[in-house]
Specification:
The chain is 56% helix and 11% strand. By secondary structure, the protein is mainly α. This is Cytochrome C.
Length: 70
């Protein structure tokens, strides 16, 4: 069947989407202080698709953060 999606791909996509959606309340205050240098350490536990996406976007929206991915 062409164009079908596997259950594993569907669950990975859903987990990534939830991870990014959960970042909304965290990223808003970080980008509100864009002119200020943030000196914070953030540890993201879980290097799967959701954890890697969360770490990527945290670093993207606030480059001054020190993000560690475990």
């Amino acid at each position: 069947m062409r164009g079908s999606i596997s259950r594993r791909s569907f669950l990975q996509l859903g987990a990534s989407s939830l991870g990014v959606a959960a970042l909304g309340p965290l990223v808003g205050p970080l980008t509100a202080h864009a002119g200020q240098q943030l000196d914070a350490r953030i540890v993201v536990i879980g290097g799967g698709s959701a954890g890697a996406t969360a770490a990527k976007y945290l670093k993207h929206y606030a480059p001054g953060l020190r993000v560690t991915l475990l």
